[in-house]
């Protein structure tokens, strides 16, 4: 679409990253939240996202990756409020020297919701699974994330999440870049 990179494209449902980032900035501006639109490279493509200043710290938000079509899942909060230095692990940032570079984890969605883990623990995941439906959680390091993925899906700990309901269907999505795991439990 001719408008796919502007704010209007979000309303039309035809937007790309620039449209999402501009709309997010517009909404933050309306709420009085300091917000910067950032450009660079993500997944080998030109990309745009935002930085916001909340609770005395800068953090990054990628509204494009929050769209429910991303990962073909529920709304994703994997890239909401993450420290700027973590964003740089997966992105090349244009004009990096002009941007703040806070490392505080305090604004990360998963951190605030107590869904941010330093180590893999089956009992933690079993507690989350008790709610059923779709749930997600994030790891603080790539090694902890890899340990969780291996235990849950290669060593089949995921089958231990449905105690007492063997007819349940479990599906999952892993996102290594954000170190987030999404699990969906459908009972029959």
Structure description:
With 188 residues, the protein is α+β, with helices and mostly antiparallel strands. 27% of the residues lie in helices and 28% in strands. The chain has helices spanning 7-12, 17-31, 84-87, 109-112, 122-129, 142-154; strands at 35-42, 45-54, 57-61, 80-82, 91-93, 116-117, 133-139, 169-175, 180-186. The protein has a five-stranded antiparallel sheet. Strands 6-7-9-8 form a four-stranded mixed sheet. The radius of gyration is 18 Å and the shape is elongated. It starts with 6 loop residues before the first helix and ends with a strand.
Rg is 18 Å
How widely separated are the two ends?
A: 42 Å
> Averaged pLDDT, please?
84
Beta content comes to 25-35%
Order of helices and strands: HHEEEEHEHEHEHEE
In the sheet with the most strands, the strands line up as: 4-3-2-1-5
What's the helix count? 6
Strand-helix topology:
Blueprint (H helix, E strand, L loop, with lengths): L6 H6 L4 H15 L3 E8 L2 E10 L2 E5 L18 E3 L1 H4 L3 E3 L15 H4 L3 E2 L4 H8 L3 E7 L2 H13 L14 E7 L4 E7 L2
Parallel strand pairs: 6-7
Antiparallel strand pairs: 1-2, 1-5, 2-3, 3-4, 7-9, 8-9
């Amino acid at each position: 679409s001719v408008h796919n990179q502007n704010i209007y494209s979000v309303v039309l449902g035809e937007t790309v990253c620039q449209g999402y980032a501009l709309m997010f900035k517009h909404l933050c501006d309306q709420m009085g939240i300091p917000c910067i639109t950032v450009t660079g490279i993500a997944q080998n493509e030109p990309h745009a996202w935002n930085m916001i200043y909340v609770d005395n710290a800068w953090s990054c938000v990628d509204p494009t990756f929050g769209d429910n079509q991303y990962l073909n899942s529920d709304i994703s909060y994997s890239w909401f409020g993450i420290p700027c230095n973590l964003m740089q692990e997966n992105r090349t940032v244009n004009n990096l020297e002009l941007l703040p570079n806070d490392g505080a984890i305090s604004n990360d969605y998963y951190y605030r919701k107590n869904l941010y883990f330093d180590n893999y623990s089956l009992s933690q995941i079993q507690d989350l699974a008790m709610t059923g439906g779709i749930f997600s959680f994030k790891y603080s390091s790539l090694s902890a994330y890899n340990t969780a993925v291996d235990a849950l899906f290669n060593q089949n700990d995921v089958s231990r999440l449905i105690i007492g309901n063997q007819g349940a269907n479990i599906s999952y999505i892993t996102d290594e870049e954000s170190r987030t795991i999404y699990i969906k439990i459908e009972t029959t």
